[in-house]
Amino acid sequence: MTTTVALRRVAAASSAATRPIVLSAGRKSHTRNYATSTKEEVDPQLNGYPQLPFVSRQELPALGWQDPLLRRNFGDTLHEQDELLSMWGPDIPPVSPQSATIQFLIAVSGFVGFGFLVKNVLAQDPPAVRREYPFDGLVKELGGLEANKARAESLEED
Predict the structure, then answer these.
(1) Is 156 exposed, middle or buried (0-12, 13-18, 19+ CB in 10 A)?
(2) Which in 124, 127, 144, 158 has the greatest CB count within 10 A?
(3) What is the domain partition of the chain in residue ranges?
(4) pLDDT tens digits for range 88-136
(5) Neighbours of 32 (CB within 10 A)
(6) E strand intervals along the chain
(7) C-alpha–C-alpha distance, residues 153 and 139, integer Å
(8) Residue 85: how many CB atoms within 10 A of its CB?
């Protein structure tokens, strides 16, 4: 929804403030003359360069440009972060981050739930009783080291 609002602002700004430029072949071309919004604080690092809206070229319509590959007209003012907002910049995700997070969590919970189902419900008990050693797991017979300690013998029956 925010992209449509940004596109409407760009379209309104571009249709309201265009000026013709005569190209070398005698054709006229319209370029956009973006006005700086009075609501936003002026960036002192731009030093008079116009503050253009932060809208990716991938969100703009595909037709109606003098350079359709880059979706821009000749003579247009470039954004200060044009390498990020150009057609060659990072792709705009087709899914919102909130929706992607929800879908990811659903997929992870499905895998974890399937793992618990297999481990706790579908897995069989071992067919043999595990081996147990007397005298505290043969600590004395194995050299007395705690690292060599085997499983201790239990007196209770299963």
Answers:
(1) exposed
(2) 144
(3) 2-85, 93-123, 129-158
(4) 988 888 899 999 999 999 999 999 999 999 999 998 888 888 888 777 6
(5) 19
(6) 18-22, 28-32
(7) 12
(8) 20
